[in-house]
Write a structure and sequence with these properties.
The structure holds 2 protein chains of 2 kinds. By secondary structure, chain A is mostly beta strands. Chain A has a single domain, classed as Archaeosine Trna-guanine Transglycosylase, Chain: A, domain 4. Chain A contains no helices and 10 strands. Chain A has strands at about 5, 15-20, 25-30, 30, 35, 45-50, 60, 65-70, 80, 85. Chain A has a 5-stranded mixed β-sheet with strand order 4-1-2-6-9, with no helix packed on it. Chain A is globular, with a radius of gyration of 13 Å. The mean pLDDT of chain A is about 90. Chain B is α/β, with parallel strands linked by helices. Chain B has 2 domains: about 20-135, Rossmann fold (3-Layer(aba) Sandwich), CATH 3.40.50; about 145-375. Helix content of chain B is about 40%, strand content about 20%. Chain B has a 7-stranded parallel β-sheet, with helices on both faces. A 4-stranded parallel β-sheet of chain B has the order 4-3-5-6, sandwiched between helices. In chain B, β1 (about 5-10) and β2 form a beta hairpin. In chain B, α5 (about 155-175) packs across α13. Chain B is globular and about 60 Å long. The model of chain B has no long low-confidence stretch (mean pLDDT about 95). The chains are: A mainly beta, B alpha/beta. At the A-B interface, β8 and β10 of A face α5, α7 and α9 of B.
Chain lengths: ~90, ~375
């Protein structure tokens, strides 16, 4: 079985991807990145922050921008629709 | 030779991976009779459009292109085309026959609007076609004869991490063997269009890619509608995809890494080999019909949690790399790619197995969708009926 709990797709990424369901408080071993402590439950294949992200800052996965933080995100947070938002195809755009 | 399969050589040089008699209803008024004919004759595949009258301009053109393209798909050995008025029917049938497909027709006009008489004539004609095409035999054919459509539906984060890159590797192999590959869903290039544009074979291809995305992005905005809450869909969000950009970056991986030869319109056939992108809808049934009407004999369809939809005409190979989905849906998922994320097998080795599986399906091995009759074709409309 895998010795990793999550993996980093690109060195520029702010987030890693959970390889299994991760519980809040667990130490997460990240393939290609440093370990972090999960601050929330992370379902499999969901994202967790590897570092703090300021509100309004870009968020990267695959080495590319996938959206921007709509609140301050701490390392180990679950990163999903509650704290990041698309920058594209918005009616105000 | 590992890069060949057993296919049906057509008179026009194309190669089918199936030997269908297509019963094609070209007008909603003939839909019930079309389906009745198809049910009565074994070895037929039925496609009946619900539309066909009161369409004008680009809407009429795209409907006609889809009908002619589906009947002209190399998997169709012969087509019985069922219509209402003789003039429209002959116009479609002549275009299909010009492409080299054997065609028969029946019209409600010919039987004084008697749908049962239409059914009777249609069953006899379809039966004759079915007997005739049964004389054709498979023979070795090169992968360069394949056009493959690549689709993803009900994606989750495993699609972008493993399922789509896996199909992308097979897509590269098909392109390298001289075949053609198509992927579409323009909205799901959004956020990844700079990466696709960089792969445009010529500057005008790069521009066509970014223009197509800009048009698609501007459309909901022009209606005052926010894409947020529409795409990614609920099943995508449950699976861990947060934004359209994230979904797109995973989605385009199914198109592999080769240069993009051209941007096709919906249901527009590639004129040459290589990787093509089709400017079309993100709704999988419509998107797949676009590929099949453009001549795709095979479709790869990746999914995270599962998706049962298939083409009626092109065998549709379901691929999931989710750790649980292949085991949970053993009569839906044709290929289990979960070994990639678990680390049990290298991605290259899994891709080689998928390529072998593709050649087996091209040679006649059945997909789950074929066995269970999941296949359908869904038509794109571009405007209201008059």
């Amino acid at each position: 079985m895998s010795t990793w709990d999550a993996f980093l797709l690109n060195p520029a990424d702010d987030v890693a991807v959970a390889l299994r369901p991760i519980a809040a408080g667990e130490a997460v071993r990240v393939r290609g990145g440093h370990s972090v402590t999960a601050r929330a439950d992370i379902p499999m294949a969901h994202k967790l922050a590897l570092r703090a992200i300021a509100a309004g800052a870009s968020v990267r996965k695959y080495g590319e921008i996938i959206g921007q933080a709509c609140t301050t995100i701490a390392a180990g947070d679950h990163v999903h629709v509650h704290n990041i938002v698309s920058r594209r195809a918005r009616k105000s755009a | 030779m590992t890069d060949s399969f057993l296919g049906y050589r057509r008179a026009n040089g194309a190669v089918g991976v199936r030997n269908h008699v297509l019963v094609l209803g070209i007008n909603g008024l003939a839909g019930a009779a079309t389906r009745r004919i198809g049910r009565a004759v074994r070895g037929t595949v039925t496609v009946a459009t619900p539309y066909g009258r009161g369409q004008i301009g680009p809407d009429a053109e795209i409907h006609r292109r889809q009908l002619i393209g589906l009947a002209g798909n190399p998997n169709v050995a012969a087509a019985l085309i069922v219509g209402v008025d003789r003039k429209t029917l002959d116009s479609v049938a002549d275009a299909v026959a010009a492409g080299g497909t054997t065609v028969e027709t029946v019209a409600l006009d010919d039987v004084h609007e008697d749908a049962l008489a239409l059914t009777d004539v249609g069953i006899k004609k379809a039966a004759q076609l079915a007997r005739s095409v049964s004389n054709q035999r498979r023979e070795p054919c090169p992968v360069s004869a394949l056009r493959v459509g690549v689709e993803c539906g009900h994606s989750d984060a495993t699609s972008g991490l493993a399922g789509n890159p896996l199909v992308g590797k097979v897509s590269d192999r098909v392109v390298d063997s001289g075949g053609a590959v198509m992927f579409g869903e323009t909205l799901e290039w959004l956020g990844a269009e700079h990466l696709l544009a960089r792969r445009g074979a010529r500057p005008e291809v790069a521009k066509a890619i970014t223009d197509a995305v800009a048009r698609r992005e501007a459309y909901p905005a022009s209606l005052g509608i926010d894409l947020l809450g529409n795409n990614p869909g609920q099943e995508n969000i449950r699976g861990g995809l947060s934004t359209i950009e994230e979904k797109s970056l995973g989605a385009v991986a199914k198109g592999g890494s080769r240069p993009i030869a051209a941007v096709l319109g919906h249901a527009e056939a590639p004129t040459g080999r290589g990787l093509h992108v089709m400017d079309g809808p993100g709704y999988s049934p419509e998107s797949i019909t676009g590929f099949v009407a453009a001549g795709a004999q095979l479709v790869f369809f990746t999914t995270g949690p599962g998706n049962s939809y298939c083409s009626a005409i092109a065998p549709t190979i379901k691929v999931s790399a989710h750790p649980q989905t292949p085991g949970r849906l053993p009569e839906q998922i044709d290929f289990d790619g979960s070994a990639i994320l678990s680390g049990r097998e290298e991605a290259e080795a899994v891709a080689a197995r998928l390529h072998t599986h593709m050649l087996a399906v091209a040679s006649g091995s059945a997909t789950w969708g074929e066995i269970l009759g999941e296949g359908d074709e869904v038509f794109v409309r571009l405007g209201p009926s008059l």
